[in-house]
Recover the amino acids of this structure.
């Protein structure tokens, strides 16, 4: 898969007409009854976010110049992160079956979703570190392609965190807009 080299996180932000957090209504619903708040997540959305992480790792490692420039230990770290994410995704989709939504408040589902989030965060960290290394050792076109993938998967991670309400707690900022999320998923080949 060839990633367009002109898309960057900055252009995601600049070219988006929407402001603030505009997560799709179907992605998450929060209901409160008395002192009980229930968070319901869309299974397809969670699957897309995890698939984006797997795709980012595959995309970056699929670039010929990357493996030799990073060395076997860094490549192995990215591959392991992608494999863990893929395994967590398989367990999640197997458990979800044909479910359209899940309750994040359920301990079993919370554990599965948190595992996906943790593994996605690990993939993003590994790819970001790899990008720093690549900047000094490969052509600018390779750096641009890897940067595009890293920015896209970072946007997806931010969306996932925002979906679960952790961005506001951890960073004090809103998550990406739906247009930014859609652009990131498109860059990573996730429909």
């Amino acid at each position: 898969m060839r990633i367009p080299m002109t898309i960057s996180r900055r252009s995601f932000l600049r070219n988006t007409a929407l402001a603030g957090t505009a997560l799709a209504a179907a992605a998450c619903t929060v209901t409160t009854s008395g002192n009980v708040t229930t968070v319901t997540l869309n299974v397809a959305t969670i699957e897309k976010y995890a698939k984006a992480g797997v795709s980012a790792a595959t995309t970056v490692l699929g670039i010929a110049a990357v493996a030799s420039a990073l060395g076997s230990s860094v490549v192995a770290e990215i591959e392991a992160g992608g494999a863990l994410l893929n395994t967590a995704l398989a367990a999640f989709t197997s458990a979800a079956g044909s479910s359209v939504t899940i309750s994040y408040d359920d301990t079993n589902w919370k554990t599965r979703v948190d595992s996906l989030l943790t593994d996605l965060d690990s993939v993003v960290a590994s790819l970001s570190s790899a990008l720093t290394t690549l900047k000094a050792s490969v052509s600018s076109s390779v750096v641009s392609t890897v940067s595009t993938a890293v920015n896209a998967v970072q946007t997806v991670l931010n969306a996932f965190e925002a979906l679960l309400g952790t961005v506001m707690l951890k960073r004090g900022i809103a998550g990406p807009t739906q247009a930014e999320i859609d652009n990131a998923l498109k860059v990573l080949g996730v429909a």
Observations:
- Residues 54 and 86 are 6 Å apart (CA to CA).
- The radius of gyration is 17 Å.
- DSSP finds eight helices and three strands in the chain.
